[in-house]
């Protein structure tokens, strides 16, 4: 990952430069990944029965 791409991801997440002192690159990447997964519609949702069978 390049520096401009990293900074673009920070802007998309709303992270300021002062907040970057408290975060690692890995945390920012995880936050961006989770943001991208927020709109994903999973085809199946587990029920209590599924957990009981597990």
List keywords for this structure.
single chain, 54 residues, mainly alpha, 4 helices, 0% strand, elongated
- The number of distinct β-strands equals 0
SSE arrangement, N to C = HHHH
Main beta-sheet strand count, sense and barrel state: none
Q: Spans of 5+ residues with little confidence (pLDDT < 50)?
A: none
Query: How helical, in percent, are the residues?
Result: 55-70%
Mean pLDDT level: 92
Distance between the termini: 39 Å
Tally of individual helices: 4
Gyration radius over CA: 17 Å
Describe the secondary structure blueprint for this structure:
Layout: H1 3-13, H2 17-20, H3 25-37, H4 48-53
Helix pairs in contact: 1-3
Walk me through what this model shows:
It is elongated and about 45 Å long. The longest helix is centred in the middle third of the chain and has 13 residues, at 25-37. The chain has helices spanning 3-13, 17-20, 25-37, 48-53. It has 54 residues and is mostly helical. The protein has a domain at 1-36. The model has no long low-confidence stretch (mean pLDDT 92). Helix 1 packs across helix 3 (25-37). 0% of the residues are buried.
Please summarize what this structure is.
The protein has helices at residues 3-13, 17-20, 25-37, 48-53. By secondary structure, the protein is mostly helical.
């Amino acid at each position: 990952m390049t520096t401009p791409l990293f900074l673009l991801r920070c802007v998309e997440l709303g992270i300021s430069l002062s907040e970057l002192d408290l975060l690692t690159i890995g945390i920012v990447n995880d936050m961006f990944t989770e943001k991208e997964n927020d709109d994903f519609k999973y085809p199946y949702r587990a029920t209590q029965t599924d957990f009981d069978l597990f």
